[in-house]
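Hi R.,

Here's the chain you asked about this morning:
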Amino acid sequence: MFPRDHWYAIVDSRELRRGKVIGARRLGVDLAIWRDEAGQVHATADRCPHRGASLSLGRVRGGCVECPFHGFRFDGAGRCVAAPCNGDEAPRHLDVQAQVLREAHEFVWLWWGEPRASYPELPWFPELDAAYVHAGLMAIEAPIDWMRAVENQLDWAHLPFVHRTTIGVGVAPAMEVGAAVEGDRLDTWQANRVRPDGTPELKISLVFPNIWINPFGGRWQTGMIAFVPIEAGRSRLYVRTYQRRLGIPGLAGLVSRVMNQFNKIILGQDIRVVRSQPQAPTHELKDERLVQSDLAIALFRKELRRRLSQAVSG
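And here is the predicted structure, written out as tokens:
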């Protein structure tokens, strides 16, 4: 269900306060995630190997997460470094599985794959450089599989129906869709809506596996979503509006905050319909008949099958 050997955005950086631990289920795994006193992020399985208590109920001490039950401590590599009931000895059989994390673009990223000597660069959009800001943490959880959530944002034809009172006003139902995959990026556009020079009026993009942008405001404003798999059939969506920095201090952040509220309405319209679909992994579906306007969705499914089969064969 989740292509391996990829970086996944899993939490917004602002959800992790220094010296605190949180529990989060991601990609079907329960994790204890914490930011140590120096500001570094770590994650292990959220289960103490001693008696099975949840580590996320514990606290951070000396850069480690401490189990709330018996005070066993685990460092960011998952090594048990303290077992108070054992005196000075920390038995090696009490080590816990740790995750490889990175932090960038105000997200924490998890490597979903086997550890390696070196890792690929984190996925991101070069368009969203330091000239843009965003404001506020906006996260929505829904009983929607992450694949369905992604596909909904690649779907042009739903706009005049699902969003007939908002962003779909004036969108003609009849359309031709273009789409292409290059490397880790899938771009899609309405082929019947182009500028005089032949370029698309609007192009939306997915970078595999789980981040998406919609530059609906041209060079001034871009919508962005990280589709975070909690488990099969449930996702957490981190929604941002990136606003180009403006001359008045704080104005760009205010505009971004206002747009976030509008995004809540849009996503509410989406979730109402998408949650009614079967929430099985979509790359294996045999009973949906796609049409031309589903080209981007068809390419997404094809690319998912390729990446998942690579993981199996590898």
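One quick note: The helical segments are 146-153, 159-162, 251-274, 295-313.

Cheers,
M.
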